[in-house]
Structure formats: C-alpha cells, structure tokens
C-alpha cells in the first residue's frame, strides 16, 4: 500500500535534517545534517556516504563504477577521516577547488541500488544536494521507493480553476491552473487565441525565477517567454505551459549552486554533473497530462530542444511539427547557448 502523504513527510524531514528510511534503508541528508545530528544518527561511526555516480566521477571515486549514470548511486565506505566536514566536501561541489579531498576513499558495491536511487530522486525533489549518510538509527519517517514514484505521478494532476487573464501581447488569454494533492507546485497554462481546427502552437516553458522575474541575462528564458506569447498569438491560437520545473528540475537553490560553479568556469552541463544531477532532470509527463486535460493530443511545439520533443512524445503527445524558438544571444548567455548547441543537441 502506498501512502500518498509519505513522500511529502519525507521531504519535510529531509529539509529539517531528520533521518528517513526508504525501503528500510536509513538515510540522513548531508546538506541539512550537522555534526550533532550525525552523531545521533551514527553512534558507531560506521554509516557510509551515498552520492551519485556523476558526483563520484567528478571526485575520481568512480574506479569501481561501470558508467557515470547520474541516477546510479555510489556508496563511499566510512573511513576514520570521513567526518561531517569531509562528508560535506563529498556532497558540495562548491568546495571542490578550495578543499582538496582528504581520502583515500573506497567505494562499495550496492547490494540493492533501488532504495539508494530513490533517495537521490527524493533529494532532487526536496531541492537538496543528492548526498546522504546511510545506515544509522533514530528514523521516524519510513517510506518506500514506490511512495516517491507516486509523488511524481503526473496522472494525479487535476485542473483546479480557470479565469480570463489579459496579458501583454495577448489580451484574450485565459489562465488555467493545475495541481496535485502531493505537491505544492501549481503549474499553469495560458490559452491564447481561439481554436481553429489546427493543432495548437505550444510552448513548454520551465520556470526560471532569475530569467522570468529578475531579467537575468545568463540564460534566454525571459525573452523566450515573451516571444512565445507573441508567436502563439501570431499563429492564431495555442498554449503556453508554465511548468514549475526550476533549473531543469533541480530547484532554485541547486540551480544557483550550478551558477556558482559556472562562476568557477564550468559550463551548464558539467555544473549539473558536479552537483550529482542529470543534465536535464525534467519529466515532461506533467506537460502531457496538462495538454490531455485541455483536450489536446497533437501539438506544434515551439522549441530548439529535441529532448523536449522526444519527452513529450514519450508521454503520449504527438508533436506534428517542431517550430524553432531562437532568440539572439547577449554577451552573458553566449556560452550557455553554445553549450546547448554543442553538448545537449539543441538545434540553434
Ligand atoms: N540546472 C540549470 N538550469 C538552468 C540553467 N540555465 C537555465 N536553466 C533552467 O533551464 C530551464 C529553461 O529551459 P528551457 O527554456 O525549457 O530551454 P531548453 O530545454 O534549452 O529548450 P528550448 O528553450 O525549448 O529550446 C529553466 O528551468 C531554467 O531555470 C543552468 O545553468 N543550470
Ligand atoms: Zn533561465
């Protein structure tokens, strides 16, 4: 039996620095722990450290790992010198240049990778660094990997309400809000123009607080948002989905950590990997569900990103045409756009 509240309780516990258990494996998130919490969790000082394989590869701890799949966790054996500060250095890439690793560290095979992989997913959902102490005591919140999957189940999303919303460039727009019982993220759709029998022009816009609200020049999100509304209006009709998938799904704080790494010279792809995340952690099932609830099964998709097309199609929406959505670069986002073109297959 899955408990629909279980994942939410575990997210809350992790953010407060309380241990949780996934399928019986006790975990303490390193980011929200401290030396005292670690001591209470791990009286015998034998808890191992769990990190992603992307992080392990960055730390050159991937010697016993086949491939650097960021979803595959790696266990680092507890050594006498692996104290709370050393574990923090394993977890947090912002310290990589400043704090050389002590070590040596030994990675251990994972008997059952499923709960460990679920733990890394839960950290991402909670917006925390994907790194844990494993195998202690004092757990009050126990959940299963299936609870985490149901937390992300897009079919739980329902249409909540709709209203007229005149916006700049589309005075006839209507806003539709969606939510699921599990998550505080409320996604919205902006319906522009009147259906004319053709598939709608659709833009999947992932939340970018820095670009959408603060006018960040580091990315192209702000101009893409404005231009999407204009393009949909000009095409006759269509839908802008505003998806609460900040930072390609890793959350605002982790995205800003990625920005700090970019300040050190790493590009957007390597920054995510160093943090221990997939390059793109988004799930476009949410977008497909919203389109389904709006009665749309075929779309013309405004994007330069082939992965978005594939993701939406995999989730059951027919993409009858990809419409490019390129905006001129500025000196601050030139490298970001070049990285998208050269490393993530964007058609720019
Ligand atoms: N992790 C991370 N996320 C970023 C970075 N820069 C922008 N983002 C996020 O990327 C998302 C924007 O991506 P999209 O506009 O959908 O762009 P895209 O996937 O490149 O595809 P198209 O614009 O559709 O071609 C937003 O959630 C931003 O917050 C970064 O350097 N790191
Ligand atoms: Zn952005």
Q: Could you give the order of the helices and strands?
A: HEEHEHEHEHEEHEEEEHHEHHHHEHEH
Annotated CATH topology of the largest domain: Rossmann fold
Strand ordering within the main sheet: 5-4-3-6-2-1-7
Ligands in the model, by name, code or SMILES, are: guanosine-5'-triphosphate, zinc ion
What is the distance, rounded to the nearest whole angstrom, between the alpha carbons of the first and last residues?
47 Å
GO molecular function, one term: GTP binding
Family: Belongs to the GTP cyclohydrolase II family. In the N-terminal section; belongs to the DHBP synthase family.
InterPro entries: GTP_cyclohydro_II, RibA, RibA-like_sf
Cofactor: Zn(2+)
Protein model, in words:
Belongs to the GTP cyclohydrolase II family. In the N-terminal section; belongs to the DHBP synthase family. It catalyses: GTP + 4 H2O = 2,5-diamino-6-hydroxy-4-(5-phosphoribosylamino)-pyrimidine + formate + 2 phosphate + 3 H(+). This protein is an alpha/beta fold and 348 residues long. The chain has two domains: 147 residues, DHBP synthase (Alpha-Beta Complex), CATH 3.90.870; 155 residues, 3-Layer(aba) Sandwich (Rossmann fold). The N and C termini lie far apart (47 Å). Bound molecules: guanosine-5'-triphosphate and zinc ion (ZN). Zinc ion (ZN) binds next to helix 7.
């Amino acid at each position: 039996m899955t408990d629909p509240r279980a994942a939410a309780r575990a997210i809350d516990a992790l953010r407060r620095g309380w241990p949780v258990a996934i399928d019986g494996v006790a975990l303490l998130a390193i980011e929200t722990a401290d030396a005292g919490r670690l001591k209470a969790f791990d009286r015998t000082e034998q808890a191992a450290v769990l990190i992603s394989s992307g992080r392990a590869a960055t730390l050159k701890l991937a010697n016993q790992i086949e491939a650097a799949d960021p979803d595959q966790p790696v266990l680092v054996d507890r050594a006498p010198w692996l104290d709370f500060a050393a574990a923090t250095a394993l977890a947090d890439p912002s310290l990589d240049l400043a704090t050389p690793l002590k070590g040596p560290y030994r990675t251990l095979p994972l008997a059952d990778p499923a709960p460990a992989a679920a733990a890394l997913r839960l950290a991402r959902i909670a917006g925390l660094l994907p790194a844990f102490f494993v195998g202690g005591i004092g757990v009050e919140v126990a959940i299963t990997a299936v609870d985490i999957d149901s937390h992300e189940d897009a079919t739980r999303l329902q249409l909540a309400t709709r209203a007229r919303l005149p916006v700049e460039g589309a005075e006839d727009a209507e806003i539709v809000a969606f939510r699921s019982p599990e998550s505080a993220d409320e996604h919205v759709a902006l319906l522009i123009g009147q259906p004319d029998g053709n598939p709608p022009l659709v833009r999947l816009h992932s939340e970018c607080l820095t670009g959408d609200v603060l006018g960040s020049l580091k990315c192209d999100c702000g101009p893409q948002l404005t231009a999407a509304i204009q393009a949909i209006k000009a095409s006759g009709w269509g839908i802008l989905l505003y998806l609460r998938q900040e930072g390609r799904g890793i959350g605002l704080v982790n995205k800003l950590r990625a920005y700090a790494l970019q300040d050190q010279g790493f590009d957007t792809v390597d920054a995510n990997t160093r943090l221990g995340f997939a390059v793109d952690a988004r799930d476009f099932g949410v977008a497909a569900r919203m389109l389904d609830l709006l009665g749309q099964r075929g779309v013309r998709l405004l994007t330069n990103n082939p992965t978005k097309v594939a993701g939406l199609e995999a989730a059951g929406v027919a993409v009858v045409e990809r419409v490019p959505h390129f905006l001129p670069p500025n000196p601050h986002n030139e490298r970001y756009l070049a990285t998208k073109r050269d490393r993530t297959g964007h058609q720019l």
